[in-house]
Specification:
The protein has a domain of about 150 residues. The chain is about 55% helix and about 10% strand. A hairpin with a 3-residue loop joins β3 and β4. α3 packs parallel to α7 and α4 packs antiparallel against α7. The longest helix is centred in the first third of the chain and has 33 residues.
Length: about 290
Amino acid sequence: MNLVSNRSITLADVFTVPSNNASMTGTFLHKPTGVFDNFATHFLCYSEYMVCEILMSCQHAFEYDVEKITIGFLQELRNDIIGISSKTLVTVMHNEKHNGQLEGLTSEKRYESFDRKLKETSYLKEIFMIFPVLESLILSKLTSRLKQFEEIIMRLDQDHMDLVSCFNIDEHEISHIRFSEGDSHNEGKTVSIIEMSEGSRFVYKPHNMQIEHIYHKLIEWLNGTLIDEYPLTSTPTLNGNDYGWQAFVKHLPCCNLREVKSYYYKIGKNSCTFVLCGRERYTFRKYYCLW
């Protein structure tokens, strides 16, 4: 496949895709957020084109709901782009208002005037000439996100049989791939959640998971060796070279006192296991215990 893996995306690449050729982006933008929606249009159109190309180029070991996956990708990317650019755009808009360059007698009309200008390729180029770091940050985010998307699709194909076996997957269609579900690793890649059409989920992590895999095997051995009312529950893990897959753990409350007792008892058992393995410190927000 390797449509984006070996290169960095440029502004020229983005502007090669006409905005009227991106049907899903057009539908998506009919639900505006009211925060500089037109600024992201060209980046979203290019992303729609690339996401569809990546999905069409894969081996289709899984089936993919192209529309849902693409719209989900666009939603997250728009949020990222607006998060990166909003303060700069407010500054530009304020300067143009001060210089009398915006139409309208009210703040709402002047905002609409500014937002319309953001559709124009020539105007965007002017902004990026003044703020080159903004251009760099957005293109870096776009490149990283598309590279990770391609990487996930390739590895879903590659690891299909192992994933089905490890996580007992009996569904065939993937409906969503959710990014930014944890810390960044390896050039901005983030933990992603893969959602199947009927609701089951598993997790992609862009770093080696050999330690998690060994810990899972250790817990299996402890449960088979120790006689205990509260056996530990570990998370099935599939380790690649520089990435891994893990079962999704739902965040649920305890329903009764027995589950509360089990929860805190297992925290103690897990903590003891960590210390025996030489891990005396760990981040509690990343620590879970299945009752």
